């Protein structure tokens, strides 16, 4: 019963009426007009109908209130509009027929469906026919049956052709669609890049304006760094670098203890702790990102630059160890830009120790030592050259007792004063004083941790550890070089191209820090350098197959002398073997292969700066240097001649070698005949020779070399106590550098001619080969050639005679001028004497 009553009470609304049609849209045919004209009564009856009553009758609902029915109608209309709004709008493929021309169909649900017709699609031919028919005023509906059949056949044929064309044009359409899609993707990628770029700039500006309130924005920037686009990632890394450089504090953030976390603090302290915690977490994530991207070739340079910048700006901050390890690893990078960047960063770290209290310096030196050990000493020399920028105190090599002795002593009176006796204190005062002292110690420790200044004792201990790690690296490189050279000498099948890339900077570092080496290692170091220089105990069996170059062996000699001179008071070592080795290395020098600057430095260190040399050894070096100057370029020649002149000034007896005697030098020695290929300077017999090379060097093409040779030859006419007029006070190394610089600047610049520019004849030298000259048929008249040569040499003789006469004329004129000046001075003296006599006579008369 309940169910039947519910069904009866359910309201069933009638279907919707057709929409109202305006009068302007109603199309009335001619037949309807004629019908209503003939039957006017029917038209009057239709006009009298009550439309409202009919509508209310049609839309009535039995046994229900009208207000409720109206509400239901409104609800149905609202639902219909909502459903239409949710449906996607599509263009109607079919053309709806006018509702007056066709009656609607009522569905079972009570909806009215009006008849529709498809849109007509005509080809060009059909459209042409239609236009013609329209021009004639004939409607398309009145076409005959034959015309419709013909049209149907044409449409069939056209549809087949259209299918064929569609199959051929399909790939072209696909290509066009692909191209359009790619262009859209590129445009969208550029727009997306600009949006991300603007986003990074916005976040960065907000961080720089107020970092404490916007500290969470660092996570957004880190998320952008994980983008697939490489440009966006690089831009994000550089943006984060700029932000971190600005917001990193000037202190190291330490981790809070459990006791500190349990203590209640104020809001400001909580805010500061949260800021530091978030900053440290973002900084750690950023460093991890850089280390991971460093392994990829696309981001290698950017990651290395970020690491170097962070280490340079904030060496005191957290996670310094990981950054320093990465930078030290890149010191021997194959990329020149990255390697130079890392070297500059480490140098600035060594120089600016005030930023990190010297702690980063010792960490870097230890990491470099481990790096050298792991790579078996096969690294780029720049990885060791950075150690030359280290700075140590001058008194670091001395003992603490010596340092204390050098300090000024305190006043004896104050020391002898008796300390006043302290009165006994109570337990409370003792505990109070202990607490105060403990608090002061804690405060001092915190201040030391915050400040970058070190106590003298701490600084000294750090420098000692750094120096120990430095010399450990240097001695490891020396031992490795010795082991390879020994294996080279013993083994036969060892390759000859064994390289020692780290030996040159290692020897340079030993020479610089030689005054800091402990005296216990001096003997071993000198012996090691002697072996590396190639010297053997048997003077006639010097190993010719030494793996080291001439420059490296010369550096060994230089370092040995620097070590000896820096510890002269406490070291007794005979350095005669290094003189012998230098004497032999001068003959092995080749300018294209070896470094001339190293040779000049060796001449300066061993011969120029040393004490008075032994006469026999000095004579051997003088003769060998004269031969050397004649054989090589002007830069090497000037260095050799300056050293030669210095030796002649120090050893006046060796000036007898300047005498042009057919029997040689006038001094007697152990060896009566000079041996130019002698291995030992004492067995060369140089005192029995003459420096005939200087007469040839007088005609050298370089003016500085020729003037120096002439100046040395002028010493033959002077007494042993007299010295010639000095030309320059430069040492061999300075002279070599100056002349090398002049030669580099005087080199002509090769101007490239354009391809269309033709060379002029007669203005350029063309070298012909000997084969071409032999094959060419060249015949000349002997008398004509003799006359030409006679004229040429006559001109030369005339020029030399003219120069001689000019010199005599200048000499005569200068002597005449001197005589005139002498006469003038004599005349003035006589006039002065006569004036004095007259003045004295007048005084007597008065």
From TrEMBL:
One of the Pfam families matching this protein, by short name: NOC3p
Superkingdom: Eukaryota
GO process terms (BP): DNA replication initiation
Region (Disordered): 1-22, 74-94, 123-173, 399-434
Basic and acidic residues bias locations: 131-159
Residue span, CCAAT-binding factor domain: 554-709
Family: Belongs to the CBF/MAK21 family.
Name of the protein: Nucleolar complex protein 3 homolog
Organism: Zizania palustris (Northern wild rice)
């Amino acid at each position: 019963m309940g169910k039947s009553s519910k069904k009866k009470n359910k309201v069933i609304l009638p279907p919707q009426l057709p929409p109202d049609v305006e009068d302007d849209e109603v199309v009335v045919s001619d037949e309807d007009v004629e019908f209503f004209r003939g039957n006017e009564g029917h038209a009057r009856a239709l006009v009298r109908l009550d439309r409202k009553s009919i509508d209310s009758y049609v839309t009535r609902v039995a046994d229900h209130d009208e207000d409720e029915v109206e509400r239901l109608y409104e609800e149905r209309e609202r639902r219909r509009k909502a459903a239409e709004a949710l449906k996607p709008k599509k263009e109607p493929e079919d053309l709806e027929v006018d509702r007056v021309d066709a009656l609607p169909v009522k569905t079972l649900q009570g909806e009215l469906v009006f008849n529709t017709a498809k849109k007509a699609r005509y080809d060009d031919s059909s459209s042409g026919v239609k236009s013609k028919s329209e021009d004639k005023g004939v409607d398309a509906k009145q076409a005959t049956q034959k015309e419709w059949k013909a049209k149907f056949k044409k449409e069939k044929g056209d549809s087949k052709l259209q299918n064929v064309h569609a199959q051929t044009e399909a790939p072209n359409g696909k290509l066009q669609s692909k191209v359009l899609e790619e262009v859209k993707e590129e445009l969208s990628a550029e727009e997306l890049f600009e949006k991300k770029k603007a986003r990074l700039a916005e976040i960065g500006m907000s961080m720089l304006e107020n970092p404490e309130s916007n500290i969470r924005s660092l996570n957004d920037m880190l998320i952008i760094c994980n983008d697939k686009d490489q440009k966006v990632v690089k831009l994000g890394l550089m943006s984060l670098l700029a932000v971190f450089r600005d917001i990193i504090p000037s202190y190291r953030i330490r981790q809070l203890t459990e006791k500190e976390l349990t203590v209640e603090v104020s809001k400001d302290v909580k805010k500061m702790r949260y800021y530091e915690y978030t900053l440290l977490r973002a900084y750690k994530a950023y460093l991890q990102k850089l280390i991971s991207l460093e392994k990829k070739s696309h981001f290698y340079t950017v990651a290395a630059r970020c690491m170097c910048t962070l280490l340079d700006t904030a060496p005191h901050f957290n996670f310094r160890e990981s950054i320093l390890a990465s930078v030290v690893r890149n010191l021997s990078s194959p990329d020149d830009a990255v390697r130079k960047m890392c070297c500059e960063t480490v140098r600035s770290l060594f120089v600016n120790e005030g930023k990190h209290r010297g702690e980063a310096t010792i960490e870097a030196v230890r990491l470099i030592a481990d790096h050298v050990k792991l790579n078996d000493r096969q690294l780029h020399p720049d990885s060791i050259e950075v150690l030359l920028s280290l700075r140590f105190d001058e008194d670091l090599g001395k003992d603490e007792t010596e340092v204390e002795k050098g300090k000024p002593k305190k006043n004896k009176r104050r020391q002898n004063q008796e300390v006043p006796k302290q009165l006994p204190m109570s337990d409370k005062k003792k505990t109070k004083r202990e607490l105060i002292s403990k608090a002061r110690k804690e405060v001092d420790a915190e201040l030391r941790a915050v400040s970058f200044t070190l106590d003298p004792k701490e600084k000294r201990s750090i420098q000692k550890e750094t120096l120990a790690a430095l010399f450990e690296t240097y001695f490891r490189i020396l031992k490795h070089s010795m082991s390879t050279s020994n294996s080279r000498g013993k083994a036969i099948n060892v390759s000859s191209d064994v390289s020692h890339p780290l030996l040159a900077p290692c020897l340079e570092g030993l020479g610089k820090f030689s005054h800091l080496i402990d005296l216990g290692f001096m003997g071993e170091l000198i012996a090691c350098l002697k072996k590396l220089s190639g010297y053997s105990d048997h003077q006639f069996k010097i190993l010719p197959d030494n793996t080291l170059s001439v420059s490296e062996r010369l550096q060994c000699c230089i370092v040995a002398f620097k070590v000896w001179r820096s510890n002269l008071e406490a070291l007794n070592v005979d350095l005669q073997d290094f003189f012998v080795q230098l004497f032999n290395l001068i003959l092995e020098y080749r300018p294209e292969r070896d470094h001339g600057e190293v040779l000049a430095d060796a001449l300066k260190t061993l011969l120029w700066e040393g004490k008075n040399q032994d006469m026999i050894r000095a004579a051997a070096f003088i003769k060998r240097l004269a031969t050397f100057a004649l054989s090589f370029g002007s830069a090497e020649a000037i260095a050799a001649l300056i050293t030669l002149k210095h030796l002649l000034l120090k050893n006046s007896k060796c000036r007898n070698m300047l005498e042009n005697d057919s029997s040689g030098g006038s001094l007697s020695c152990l060896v009566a005949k000079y041996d130019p290929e002698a291995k030992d300077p004492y067995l060369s017999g140089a005192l029995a020779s003459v420096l005939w090379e200087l007469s040839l060097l007088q005609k050298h093409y370089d003016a500085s070399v020729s003037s120096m040779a002439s100046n040395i030859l002028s010493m033959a006419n002077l007494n042993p106590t007299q010295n010639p007029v000095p030309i320059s006070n430069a040492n061999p190394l300075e002279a070599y550098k100056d002349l090398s610089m002049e030669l580099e600047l005087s080199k002509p610049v090769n101007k490239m001619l354009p391809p269309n520019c033709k060379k002029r004849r007669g203005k350029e030298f063309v070298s012909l080969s000997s084969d071409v000259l032999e094959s060419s048929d060249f015949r000349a008249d002997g008398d004509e050639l003799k006359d030409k040569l006679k004229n040429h040499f006559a001109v030369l003789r005339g020029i030399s005679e003219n120069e001689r006469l000019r010199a005599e004329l200048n000499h005569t004129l200068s002597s005449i001028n001197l005589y005139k000046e002498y006469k003038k001075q004599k005349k003035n003296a006589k006039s002065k004497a006569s004036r004095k006599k007259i003045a004295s006579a007048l005084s007597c008369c008065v």
